Amino acid sequence: MRNRGFSLIELLIAIVIVGVLAAIALPAYTSQLRKSARAEAQSFMTTAAGNQQQYLLNRRAYASSLDPSSSGYLGVAPPADLNGKYTFTVAATAGLPPTFTLTATAIGAQANDACPTMFIDSAGNRNPPACW
Length: 132
Known about the structure:
alpha+beta; four-stranded antiparallel beta sheet
C-alpha cells in the first residue's frame, strides 16, 4: 500500500516558491503605498494653497499655521491617515508682497520615499518638480 501525500522535499519547494514571490511582491507593494501617501499629501497641499489665497483675500495676509489653536490658523487640517507619514508646516512672510511656503516632510517609513520633502509656495512653484 502506497502513502498518499506530500513529501518533505515537495513541501519545502512550495515554501521556497512562496517565499520568493513574497520577496518580490512586498517591496513593490510598499512602494505603491508610499506613492499613494505622497499623492494624498500633494492633494492636501494643493487644497491648503488654495485656502491660503482665500485667506489672503479675507485678511490681507497669509495664514501662518495649520494648528487650530493658533491665531493665524489656515482653517484646513491634514487628513488623519497622513499624521504618521508627513509633518506639514507653513511659513508665511508679511512683506510686500506677502508670501507663503507649505512644506511636507516625510516621517517614519514614508521617509524612504523618492520624495521625502515637498514644497509649494504662493507663486505656485512646486518642488521638487519630478515629484509633482
